[in-house]
Amino acid sequence: MEPRGTKRRTEKLEVAEPRNKLAYSTSSLPTEPALYSGPFPFYRRPSELGCFSLDAQRQYHGDARALRYYSPPPTNGPGPEFDLRDGYPDRYLPRDEEVREGLDHLLRWLLEHRGQLEGHKLLKWWAQSFLPGVPKVVAGFRNPEGFVCSLKTFPTMEMFEHVRNDRDGWNPSVCMNFCAAFLSFAQSTVVQDDSRLVHLFSWEPGSPVTVSVHRDAPYAFLPMWYVEAMTQDLPSVPKTPSPTE
């Protein structure tokens, strides 16, 4: 026990920082030209996906309604007699340099047209239109509220041109060769003429096409009235005489 009248001394413990700290180096990218000598990398020239425009009041429009183009006069022959500077000082509205617009207009257009990025959508449209002979497809593009805000016509025979330079784009030759191979595979697989027999072709990404044979429900899809009507209309197949007859 402590003597009466004595005070307990409290001490403040301080944790000293280690003297030697580990120096963590940040990631860096070397810039020596010798490290980057080699074949030219894959490069795709930019293509126009759409446009937006700003009017005289700097109001945003998600299309080209406010775009204006300058067409130079012809180099050969007399040019038009007008002065491009006429009335310019009266109509010109300078941009407010204190307003930082940044990428707001571009980002807004991307949000409004994020469903417009064609890519693999063209593959589905092409496959559904090329085989039946549909010459063109009219596509409607929706805004974030779900309303169609623009239309674009895609000629079926020119759809591939939009993705020709894409490294991961689709190829119509590959599509048609696979279609021909699949039809040949189906023709060699389905050899039994039975309306109750169903051949189910299945495919999973990264796996080959497989086929399984089923009878009746739930895969049978031809109604009996159709099968009976088609069977009655078919002429009987003449019997081929054997050599012994």
Automatic annotation (TrEMBL):
One of its GO terms (molecular function) is mRNA 5'-diphosphatase activity. The keyword Metal-binding applies. GO terms for cellular component: cytosol; nucleus. Its EC number is 3.6.1.-. Residues 1-10 have a biased composition (Basic residues). Residues 44-115, 118-227 form the RAI1-like domain. Residues 1-26 are annotated as: Disordered. Keywords: Hydrolase, Magnesium, Metal-binding, Nuclease, Nucleotide-binding, Nucleus, RNA-binding. It is an enzyme of class 3 (hydrolase). The keyword NAD does not apply. Pfam families: RAI1 (PF08652). Binds 2 magnesium ions. It is found in: Nucleus. Belongs to the DXO/Dom3Z family. Decapping enzyme for NAD-capped RNAs: specifically hydrolyzes the nicotinamide adenine dinucleotide (NAD) cap from a subset of RNAs by removing the entire NAD moiety from the 5'-end of an NAD-capped RNA. This is Decapping nuclease. It comes from Ictidomys tridecemlineatus. The lineage of its organism: Eukaryota, Metazoa, Chordata, Craniata, Vertebrata. The gene is DXO.
